Amino acid sequence: MAVPAHKIGNWFLYIGKALTRARLLSTDGVPFGYLFGIAVDDQGALVEGDYTGAPSPDAKGWDRFEDWVEGLTGRWGVVLIQKQGTRLYTDASGMIGAVYDAKTSTVSASLALCLTRDVVDHPDYDHSAIEERGAKYSLFDTRDAHVRRMNPSCYLDLETFHETRFWPRPDSIQLEDGSLGETYDWLGQRTERVFYAIAKRHKCWLPLSGGQDSRLLLAMAGQARLGVEMSYTHISNYANRIDATIAKRLAQIAGIKHEVHDKRDHRTKQKRARVDAENYYTALGFKMPPSAEMKNGLHLKIPRNAVVLRGHQTDIIRAVFSSRIGERARNNTRWQVLRLLIVPQQEFNDDIWARFRPRYEAWLNSIPDHARKNSTDLMFLEMYYSSTVGCMFPAFYRNFWMSPFNGRAEIGRVMAIDENYRHEGNAVHDIVDRFAPNLNEVPFDYELGAAIENIDNPEALKELTRPRREATDVRRAEIYGTEKWRHNSV
User: Fold this and answer.
1) Is the pLDDT of residue 20 over 70?
2) Contact 242, 211 (CB under 8 A)
3) Are the beta carbons of 421 and 427 closer than 8 angstroms?
4) 3-state class of 291 per DSSP?
5) Each residue of 357-400: pLDDT tens digit?
6) Whole-angstrom Cα distance, residue 422 to residue 320?
7) In terms of DSSP bridges, do strands 5-8 and 11-14 run parallel, antiparallel, or are they unpaired?
8) DSSP 121
9) Is 130 exposed, middle or buried (0-12, 13-18, 19+ CB in 10 A)?
């Protein structure tokens, strides 16, 4: 069945029928663009239908429009037709998927949708490393030598197919009112509003684990967590059994439903698994290993068309890519190119570095001076995320996967928090403690370890979590002083 086209200027926009879309209207009711995907604006409203909350660039200027873009959270793209130009903007990490072929004036969510010809293999890559060994196409490359992945911090001029960086802006990276505590409170309030807006319109499922990202989301969701239809944990290996043990307790405390999907209880026919993998490859436009859940069929446990709310950009709260910190580390680009997984890390060598170093350093030099201290965060956001979730999510055809923390306003505030402080995990524990103190005595996976029977031993849990809780108590007093404690009552 053909996908209907939305004509906008000289362009035809093809949007899947299940995908949320909005027609952007000026104050006098004139259409000037389309937003597709799920986006929540800075007022906490879902962008949908005939939407008048976006300022028309022709009337208000591009700066005002980019103010509005900076306030959006979700997984989305927007196409604008204006007298001043025709542009494409995407969400903060390119999670919606955006690749383009300048020769054919085509933009799409994936390589498969972009080409009407055979793929021309990119000469810089060992394609078997991507197909078989977990490597990624990075530096905004795709499998094809001529199709580029869009940098999400740029807009794409659809007349010239030239990308121009518009973010981070000079005031994007700063704490709320210069205060760490106010920043935490802003992040919690914003995430709760985003959860509420999305869950009000969509069937939402929330994966929970023993790690930090899902607990951060659960804590910051506040009362809006009650709008989530189901939380769940997939068990594909023993580590996931630890996840499920912890997740079940988190859900119980938070008062939300939880399901455990164990591969031992679910048998997928080999033919079905093979068909799902082939569909995945077709949607991608090349071969890359599917997830364990797709191989064992556990992804079928999530209802079709459900919105899956994942962390991802919460990784920046703990600065996961910042294995080296400081100006000297930022000037050493070898380890940074290594982290992009252009080949598996054990296969990385000086030849690989020499091949990709010039383009990586050209990207590094494109970062404005006011954001250079956050180059590692931006590498993670712009390069790594766009080449991973921005590549894979469009190929997950059963469900709409997204992060309710994927917003430039959130990310900019987080990047203003000291990098060492984040990398040590302090910001994560501060936020959970601020909004969900009842979760404090539930251990993380690294605290519980393999002794999952301790989850039912209150005294053991107190001892396992005591160092973290005591350190958090000290920081809380430093951040908030004697202020009366506020939280979202999880």
Assistant:
1) yes
2) no
3) yes
4) coil
5) 999 999 999 999 999 999 999 999 999 999 999 999 999 989 99
6) 9
7) antiparallel
8) B
9) buried
Over residues 118-137, mean pLDDT: 97
**DSSP alpha helix (H) spans, 320-388:** 327-331, 334-339, 350-366, 375-378, 385-387
The length of the chain is 490
Give pTM, 2 decimals. 0.95
pLDDT range class, residue 279, cuts 50, 70, 90: very high
d(CA 75, CA 400): 9
DSSP class of residue 473? Answer: H
| Nearest-angstrom CA–CA distance, 98 and 25 | 24
Residue pointed to by tokens 């899947």: 16
First-residue to last-residue Cα distance in the chain:
46
Check: CB of residue 218 under 8 Å from CB of residue 246.
Answer: no
Six-digit token string for 367: 């970062």
Computed over its alpha carbons, how large is the radius of gyration of the chain?
22
Helix (H) or strand (E) holding 90: strand 85-90
How far apart CA 400 and CA 306 sit, in angstroms, is 7
d(CA 50, CA 7): 16
Look up residue 247 and give its amino acid: A
DSSP one-letter code for 150: P
d(CA 444, CA 208): 12
| Angle, alpha carbons 102-108-114 (nearest 5°) | 65
| Cβ atoms of residues 87 and 158 within 8 Å | yes
Contact 34, 82 (CB under 8 A): no
What's the CA gap between 42 and 39, in Å, rounded?
Answer: 10
Residue type present at position 57: P
Mean pLDDT in the chain?
A: 94
- Provide the H-helix boundaries in 367-457: 375-378, 385-387, 389-392, 408-415, 419-423, 426-435, 445-448
Residue where the block lists tokens 């106010």: 182
Strand partners, 154: 165
Question: Structure tokens of 116?
Answer: 């009407």
Q: How many CB atoms lie within 10 A of CB 479?
A: 17
Backbone torsion region of residue 202, taken as left when φ is above 0, otherwise alpha when ψ lies between -120 and 50, otherwise beta = beta
